[in-house]
Amino acid sequence: MKFFDNLGTLEKIIFGVGGAVIIGCLVFGMFFYQYDPGNPVPIWKVLGLSGGDSQPSPAQTATPTPEQIPSPTTGIYTPTPLPTSSSSGNEEILRIGAFNVQVFGTTKASKHEVMTVLARIIRTYDIIAIQEIRDASQTALPALVDLVNSDGSQFSYVVSERLGRTMSKEQYAYIYNTQTIHLVGTPQTYPEPEGTDPFHRDPYIAPFKAHSGNFDVTAIVIHTDPEEATGEINELDSVVSYARSAYPGEKDFIVIGDLNADCTYFDEDSSSTLSSSDYYWCIDNNVDTTTKTTDCTYDRIIITRDAVTDFTGDAGVFRFDREYGLTIDETTAISDHYPVYALFYSNRDVDTATHTTSPSSTSTPTPTPINNNNGRAH
To answer: Is 330 a catalytic residue?
Structure first.
């Protein structure tokens, strides 16, 4: 301390005051701020005391939660699965659709990978109308339904007689989930008026009802002849009229299937008997229902006006290729068509349909042998 002893009185006073000021500043700063060169935080906040500046510094601005931060676009397609049967409140949502499986016979049924994908597709529906079954042996469809049920599912089916003007016959089938849907009447092939022959393959009609709720519908599946698509589409209003008389009280009808209703076969912008206000086209003209390079809306779901209250507004194609990660070749091995679907509420029906048979009744015609199982797919 010799340095301090040698100072004069005035110098001692100046030195003491300066030191006191320096020490005071240090104490003041330590009390109000926890030192962090990048983020000075008032120590009264660290100690949990109140007071201080109410406006946070830029470094203290609240960080958005993950929900508030938009996810970056990755460019990776994330498929949206076709919704499974679900409830909207206490109301079940039902899926009804159609699928042209393209020359479905023993050859396709022998391909395990193809059958596995077909079974997965069918399980996503409550009712699916299958077209282009070409199988003289009558074994392919039962094998497919058995595969559908191999995971514990409970699907059943009804199938039409073999239909067609040529040796190349086809059948229609409705495959339906017996846990959500039952058949409530006898299915039948449309009986063409005597002396007429408007359809290459007459439509197949079947009435269904949901277990839960009051939803019921009579389905009319059709695979039109591509060269006669316009004429056949215009005859479908007559089929609906017939179905109304066959199932008294029913007001909800759905015309469904491969109508070939686009491209060179049909002018989708033209008027038809189904383009009146009595019908609503769930699958509109902007949907491509083909799996190849074509861009055509061949497959349709058309409902009568009274069924619109049952329709959720959700309809489209099931892109099973994206859903199951299939290549182009694997996709076209399944079919040259995508299945179409529409979703319906189970408890908004207002009609009072009556049916002639009990819910457990089914009608599976005796197979009619044919001599040819080949043909061109459309």
So the answer is: no
